[in-house]
Specification:
Low-confidence stretches: none
Number of helices: 1
Mean pLDDT: 94
Radius of gyration: 47 Å
Oligomer: single chain
Number of strands: 0
Order of helices and strands: H
Distance between the termini: 159 Å
Length: 111
């Protein structure tokens, strides 16, 4: 009787050990899966960081280029305004010359 109880206790103990072994094995497997997932996510994050840094450098370069083009645009606009003032001055002089020529012609026709 005592050996039967002992055998029953040993069998229960072995069953518990097997269950615990399976549970521990599953936990190790899940930990390994999570480890792999973490490495993949780390790689993705590093790639995204690299791309973000490249985009930041490109944005900085674009800002510098835009500032340079803005300066050139302002210079061209000032040159255009100066050219417009000169053209207006020349046009006014041409109108005066035309009026003087018209007066001279009228004066010459009256004589």
């Amino acid at each position: 009787m005592e050996t039967v109880d002992k055998d029953l206790i040993v069998a229960k103990y072995k069953k518990r050990i097997r269950i615990m072994s399976v549970i521990m094995g599953l936990m190790v497997f899940l930990a390994f899966i999570f480890l792999l997932y973490a490495f993949v996510q780390r790689g993705i994050a590093e790639e995204n960081m690299r791309l973000a840094e490249e985009k930041a450098i490109q944005a900085t370069q674009n800002a510098v280029t835009a500032a340079s083009l803005q300066t050139k645009l302002e210079q061209c606009a000032e040159e255009a305004r100066a050219a417009q003032r000169l053209a207006e001055k020349v046009a006014e002089e041409a109108r005066r010359a035309q009026q003087e020529a018209h007066r001279a012609l009228q004066k010459a026709l009256k004589k």
